[in-house]
Amino acid sequence: MEAREDSIAMDILRIIAAVLLPPLGVFLQVGLKGAFWLNILLTLLGFIPGIIHAVWVIARR
To answer: Mean per-residue pLDDT for 21-34?
Structure first.
């Protein structure tokens, strides 16, 4: 049970990071893969698309 609670806590921290700085949330989830670079592009084009993409990347796990 404790490992599950740690996982939920980390997901919450990632989502908070994704709202404040979307590429950080994606980086914490997947590292320097394609989703990270796509998120940087989306964030530069508009902050809201970056947030939506970051939360989606974190939640689909």
So the answer is: 96
Give the residue extent of every domain in the chain: 2-59
List Cβ<8 Å contacts ≥24 apart for 19-25.
19/51, 19/54, 19/55, 22/47, 22/50, 22/51, 22/53, 22/54, 23/50, 23/54, 25/54, 25/55, 25/57, 25/58
pLDDT bucket at 1, cuts 50 / 70 / 90: low
User: Tens digit of pLDDT for each residue in 40-49?
Assistant: 999 999 999 9
The answer to whether 18 and 56 have CB atoms below 8 angstroms apart is no
Q: Cα(10)–Cα(13) distance, rounded to whole angstroms?
A: 5
- pTM for this prediction: 0.86
